[in-house]
Structures are given as structure tokens and as C-alpha cells.
Amino acid sequence: MELKFECPTCGQHISATHAQIGVTAPCPHCSAAVTVPARQDDDQTVFVLPTKLPFLKSHRKKILEAKVSELVSLGPIDESIEAKLQDFAVALGLEKADATAVLTGRFTTEFEPIKRRMESSLVLTDSDLEEIETLKKKYNVNLTLSRSAPLLRAIYLLESKHELPSPVSVDLFLGANETCYYTTPTTWHQSRVQTRGYSGSSISLPTGVSGVRFRFGGYTPVRAEQLMALSAGTLFVTSKRLLFSGESRNTTITLTKIVDGHVYSDCVRIEKSTGKPDLFSMNAAQARFVLSLVGFLKEH
Do the beta carbons of residue 30 and residue 39 sit within 8 Å? Predict the structure, then answer.
């Protein structure tokens, strides 16, 4: 009976006979060394060692990497298979940790595109979670997502499924039917106009009278707008307002007064119907969540 499998290097289909199981030969498509695989439960054929082990450790690691590719092509790596793979590494003159490192490295390589997609889009979608779970089972890897993952998930649920986050208990006196949904440490900023010297010129001429001179021209103060930190504190997003409780100053912005907002890499900018814009320091994911939450609450 003919056995068909994929080359772990180029992915092309290869045919072999059952008598060739465990034999290592060049791939007819890419010439990479390929070992004819068998079922994972057939230990004697799957974990067969080459007749002669290479002297260099790096070459033995390549054999281990090829074995991992072979096993992955046959199905998910469970704890039993990983344990046998570790024993195979020891038989090659390597460490058990080398087998785990190969599995982890392959997982990391496949997980990296998902991670970049999450970081660039600032959302953690259902399909992202499904892909991550599939990878975890494929390589038998325990993965703890970064601390920003719950926030990225909350953004997705709010924007795509219109699901509000769970209410947050706070030590504040809130109004009737007012609920707090998010809090974060921040620093409140506003722009201020400052004078930075003077520009212009003048000429002083004597009048012939002692102590009296004529002056022509003048100086104009140079003013520039500069962002200033007003106070460090905590920003609360409630169903009715943005409330900033600072160490030295406080401010409240009702949702009805907010007309626009902007997400930056280090802050969120709140545009109001009157008064200067307020800026609150935070990362881009937090800024996106605050504005999404404000927009949803204003509409509902």
C-alpha cells in the first residue's frame, strides 16, 4: 500500500511504501532530507534513530528539527508525544530542553503574525482566539497572553458586538443611575500660551536735553502654545461623564459636551463643544477603548 505525506521543508506531496517507513532520503522536489513518517502511535518507526549520528551538535539538532516537522505534519503534539520527543533528543546526545525549545520556537514563529495583527489593529477577534487555541493544541504549548489582551478583547466586543464591559466598583460618589466602566492612572494636560522672549528692534536718539532721548520702534513678545501637565491622577469613564480626580486638580467632562476625540500613541485627546481640548496620557489601546466607550455611551 502506498503512503503519501508532505515534505516538512517545501510542503510538496511525496509517496513511499510502508517498507520505507523510517528511511531518510532527499526530497524529490527540494532535496532536503526527509524521513518517511508513520503513525504517531508506532514508536519503533517514528522515533527511529539514523544509523550514524553526526559529530556536530548543530547537525544533530537539524535531525531533531526534522523529526518535529514530521510529527507536526501527522497531527497535534500531546504530552505523550512531547515526552517521547524529549527522549529522542536525549538519544541524539542532546538535552530534553532542546526538544521543548524546537516546539516553542515553531509555535512562536506561527504565533508572531497573529501577535502583529493584534498589535496593529488593537483588537482581539474571535478568529484570533481560535487560531491561538489551534496553535496551543498543535504544539502542546501553554500561552499566557500579554496584559493588554483583555483590553484588546474588550475593544472588539464593544465595537463589533456592542457588549459593554462589566461595571467597575469605585470609591466615588456617582450620580443616580450612573455607572463606572473604566478607570486608569493618567496625567491631565492642556495647552497654554507662554511668552518666549521678544522680537523686533528700536532706535534711541539723543534730544539735546540731558536725560531725555527719543526712541523709535519697539519689541513684540513672542508667544507659543505649549502642552502643560496640570495634574497626575485617575481618569474614570462613567455612563454620564469623564471624571478626572487629580492630586492637585480635578475636572469633569459630561459626555454630551464631547464632540470629537483622537487616539495617539501616548494619549487620548478630548475635544469639547466649549473650552480647550483635554489630553490624558495613556497608551494607544487605552485611548482607543476610552473613545469607543464614550461613543457607545453617548449613543445609548
Answer: no
